[in-house]
Input
Amino acid sequence: MVSNRQLEERAARKERILDAALEVFSRIGIEGSTMNEIAAEAGFGKASLYYYFPSKEEVFHAILERGWMRLLESIESVVIGNDTPRNKFIKLLNAIADQVKLNRTLYEFLFIVPKSIPVESIRNGSWKTYQNRLYATLHGILEDGVAIGDFVDIQPDLLMRAIGGIFHSLIFPGDAQSSISDTDLDTVLSKFLHPK
Output
């Protein structure tokens, strides 16, 4: 029987491997990195790395899954809150921005790297479940807002793409220490969200 302590130690070793892999992937690129480099960065032997992750692709998917799961978890309190769709959407984007700023390297990886990997790798990734749930939640809030006149009557998919571009430009080039206020975010998004 496995003790709680052993389970915690396993989880810590996996986190250490994922952090090391993210560092290696960020420095060298996914294609150029090897399991040997990940093991060395993590301070483990190659056998230990293979015990937890049988391939570099498994490590890659675990990083993506961890990041998308954390994003989804970061919005739970906003989603279940009793706010208007407009306020909920703005608070939700800020919750995501705060999570991104906690680990910019992870989220730059999350948002940029999947565009450079084979489509079949994306389709088969367990991380897509978390990403799809997050997008469906955002989409649902937009639909609720359109239904009550809180947002312009525009196709939610089109609006999501526009907001995605704005969101990336607000988060990644900005100062890692500063936060975006709800008022600032509302001002930036008002042209897209507010009915005339």
About this structure: The chain has two domains: 1-54, 61-193. The radius of gyration is 19 Å. The first helix runs from residue 4 to 28.
